[in-house]
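Repro:
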Amino acid sequence: MSNDIRGDEHVVGSLSASDGKGVVRIEQRYDTTIDDLWSAVVDPDRLARWYGRVEGDLRPGGTFHTRLDPADIDGTGRVEACEPPHRLLVTTRETDESWQRGQGPAPFDETVEATLTTEGNRTRLVIEVRGLPLDRVASYGAGWQIHAENLAAHLSGGEPIDVGARWQALLASYRQLAAELG
C-alpha cells in the first residue's frame, strides 16, 4: 500500500470502547524510514505541515500548545514518554474552549500514543487515542484518519487534503463504526 490513501471513503481506523470511554486506532504504513517518520511526528516545523502548529517543550514532562486550522481547535498537552524513534505518549485536556470555541464536549483527558516500527523498507505508524467521550469517538476517528492522510501527503511531497470534503466523506463511516460499540 502506498502513502496515498486519499480519494475515497476507505476507513483505515478502528473504534473501540474501554472502561466507558472511546478509543481510536489508526494504523498506516509509509514509504519512508523510521527516522524520517519520527521527525515528521516530533518536529514542530514538520508537524505544522500535516497536523497543526505545536509550540512548547516537547521533552518528557514538558507541556505544549497546539492549534489545528482550519478546524479552529486549540489544545494543551504534556509529553508523558518520548522514546526515539519508536514511541511518543502525550496527554491532552479537552475543554469546551478548546473545541471550536465553546461548541465542544465537557472537559475530558485523552492520551495519544504513537508507535513506530520498521517493516522492511517501510515504517508502520500506529496511533491510539484513548479516553474519548463515546458520543465523540466517530468525530475523532475521522479527524485522526485525516491527519494520517495529511501525513502521507507530506511524506510524499504532496499538498494537504481538503479537510472539509474529506471530513464529510469519512464521518458517516465512522458514525456507523461508533454505533456498533453499543
